[in-house]
Input
Amino acid sequence: MPADLSKDQLWRRVLDLMDDMANWGEAKYVLGEVDVFKLDHTHELYGHMNVNYVRLEPDSLPRFSEGWRPVLDSLRLGQFFVTTGEIAIKEFHVNGKPSGSGVVLKPGEKANVRVDLSWTFPLRFVELISGDGSKVYRDRTDSSDTGPFDQRTMHIAPDLTGRTWVRLEAWDIAGNGAF
Output
């Protein structure tokens, strides 16, 4: 929310709350979801859903009879991204470590953030959000030079000194996003 395009980003209330909670200390994650109150053959469902893409180790796709442990472990560790469907975060690394990993920076050391994105509509911006336990920081990269149906590897070198968490968001010109 808001879903009326009054802001340049969806999910603002949820993400702002998640930022506050992440600053409280423990790692926090939020899954994409959709409220379905009534469903019949005339309803279009997929076009209105947020989608969760979970990173699993090769050959770890669970069989129903074996349970969902690999999926639940990836979700618990933050090894996933949420999208409206138009933007995919194929890879996200901080100093060579993928999402869900811990990174320790030496004082004054710049982080090396690499993100591989693909999208449908031209991007508006990519934003790296981080916190130090009391304040939230935002490093926005203008992406208005992108075209439709494209992909790009971006390298960002933010100063994350003293930061305890980081999240990446990508937003397109139609208000669609991924984080």
Notes: The helical segments are 12-23, 69-76. The CA atoms of residues 46 and 131 lie 33 Å apart. The mean pLDDT is 86. The first strand starts at residue 51 and ends at 54.
